[in-house]
Amino acid sequence: MKRKLIVLILIAAVLVAFSPASQNFREPYRKSTPKSAPTKNVLPPPLIKSTAIPDFTETPETLEPVQIPEATEIPKVPEILEITETPEIMEILPAQLGQKINCGNKFQFTFYYQPLMSKSNSGQVAKGKFLVARVLITNLTDRTLEGLPARSFRLHGIIDGVDQEYKLHIANSFITSDRWDVGLITDKIQAGGMLDTFLVFDVPGKADNWYLKFEPIAKSSEGPFCRVAIQVPKINYVD
Amino acid sequence: MKRHFWILSVILLLFMIFGASAQSEGDDQSRQTGDNLLKNSEKVFPRLLINEDFSENLPLDVYEDESNGIKITSVIQQKNGVIKATNYVDGLSKDIEGLSAFYSETYYGTLSEFHLHVEVSILNEFPDSTGSCFIEYTNEAVVGENSRQTVELILGSRIDTYQTKSGSRVLTTLYDLSGTHEVGKIYNIDIIRYGGIGYFFIDGVFLIAYQDNIKENLSWMTGPIVGIGGEQTTCIFDKIWVRRK
A142, exposed or middle or buried, with CB in 10 Å at 0-12, 13-18, 19+? Predict the structure, then answer.
C-alpha cells in the first residue's frame, strides 16, 4: 500500500509539473516586467536618419558619344567583392548593341544603349567610376515575376589578368532608371513582357575586358532560370 | 489506503481544473477585451487620424546608409495604390539579427490610445526565409532613439518588445509568429492600444495583449527587415489607417 501511495504521489507531482497552470507558453498578460529572460541583441544604430539622396531637379544627362580621353590613372580599387582565382568555365558571348542574347530559352538580354563609364552619374559620385548600361530584359518564361533580385546581375572585369566581380550599385541603378522614366528591377515582369532599365556598377576604371553575368532568379531555392555571360559592348569613357 | 487514494485524486483533479482555468481566465479576459475593442473600434476610436490608400503616385525615394561595414539601400515606391519598400543589404554579418530602414510616412503624430490597421505582404526575399516586414509602435518621437521603448510585430517571426539603452537593445519575445511567413500573402494587421495595453491581431484573430508600461505618447513605423544572411526584402504596405479617441 505504501508503494501504491508513493507511486500516486509521484504521478501527482508529474501531473502538477505538466499541468497548463504551471506553464507559461508566452508572456503573461498585464505584467509590468516580462518574466522570461531577455535576449540581448546588439543591433547597429537605427537607420531612420539615413542620408537622403539629394533632390534631383536637373535634367538627365544624355548619352551622347564623347571623345575617349587619354588613359588616366586608375583610382584605388573600390568594393572588390571577390577575386576569382579559378574562374568557373563559362563561355562569354560577344554582344553588339541591340543584339538579343538568349539566356537558355527563358530570357533574352540586350545592351540597348552604348554603356558609358563616368565618375559621376545621376547626381552621385562613384568611389571609382560608374559603368552605366541601359538594357532590355525579356521574360520568356510562362511566369509573371515580381522583379529580379540584384544578385541576377554581376559585372566582371578582367584587370591585369585577374577576374574581379562587382555587385550592382543599387541606389544609382534605381535613381538613373527613375530619372530616365524607364523600368526598375523591382517592377513586375509579365510572362512574355520586357523590362527596360539601367544597370549601374561602381568599378575601378578601365579593364582589359568587361562581361556581365546574367542569372535571372525568382526564388533562391529554385535556382536561376538560366545563366549567361555577355561581353559588355564598347564602352563610352566620359571622363 | 483506498480512501487516501481517492482523496488525493480528487484534490489533484480540482487543482488541475482550477489551476488551468485561472491561467486561461487572463487569456480569455484579454481576448474578450481585444475582440470587443476590434469589433467596436469605430465607437471607441471615433476619429480617423490617418487614412492612407496610397492612391497618389509619388516620386521614387532612395536612401543609402553605411556603417560598421554594412551598406543598406532602401528603395521606396508609392505607386498603383500601394507602397513597395525594398531593403538591400551588403555585408550583413551572420551574427546580426536583422536590419531595416524605416520609412517615415507613419510618423503622423503621437497618441497613447489608438487603433492602427495595415495590410502587409512580404513580396519577395533573397535568399528564402530571410525577409520579413515589421509594424511597431514606439515612444521614440518623444524620448529619442537612444532610450526608446518599442513593441513590434514582425511578420513570419514574432511579436516582441525592446528598450534601447546606449545603442544596444534588450529584447523580449512575446509571441511566436513563425507561421505567418507566406510570401505574397496579404496579412491584415490590427494593433490597438488601450489602457496601456497593446492588443495584436492578424486577419482579425486576436493574438496577444501586452501591458507595455510606456508612459509617453506613441507613433508608428513600418518597413522591410533583412534577416541573418539576407540580401534583400521587399514588403508591400497598403491601406494604413489610424483611428483615435
Answer: exposed
Report the candidate in A144, A147, A199 with the shortest Cα–Cα distance to residue A176.
A199
Q: For residue B23, is it within any domain?
A: no
User: With contact defined as beta carbons under 8 Å apart, do B133 and B214 qualify?
Assistant: no
B72 and A5 within 8 Å at the Cβ level: the answer is no
- The CATH number that applies at residue A209 is 2.60.40.1240
* Domain of residue B207, residue span: 40-244
Q: Is B73's CB within 8 Å of A170's CB?
A: yes
CATH number at residue B79: 2.60.120.200
Q: How far apart are CA A163 and CA A171, in angstroms?
A: 24
Are B184 and A58 in contact by the 8 Å Cβ rule? The answer is: no
Domains in chain B, number? 1
Domain presence at residue A225:
yes
CB contacts of B173 in chain A (<8 Å) are: 36, 39
Q: Is residue A71 part of a domain?
A: no
Question: Dihedrals φ, ψ of B183, to 5°?
Answer: -65, 130
Report the half-sphere exposure of B215 (CA within 13 A, side-chain side).
2
The reply to whether B139 falls in a domain is yes
- Write the pLDDT tens digit of every residue in A10-19: 565 544 444 3
Render pLDDT for B214-243 as a digit per residue (tens, 0 to 9). Answer: 999 998 888 999 988 899 999 999 999 999
Q: Give the pTM.
A: 0.76
CA distance B145 to chain A (A): 8
What is this model's ipTM?
Answer: 0.82
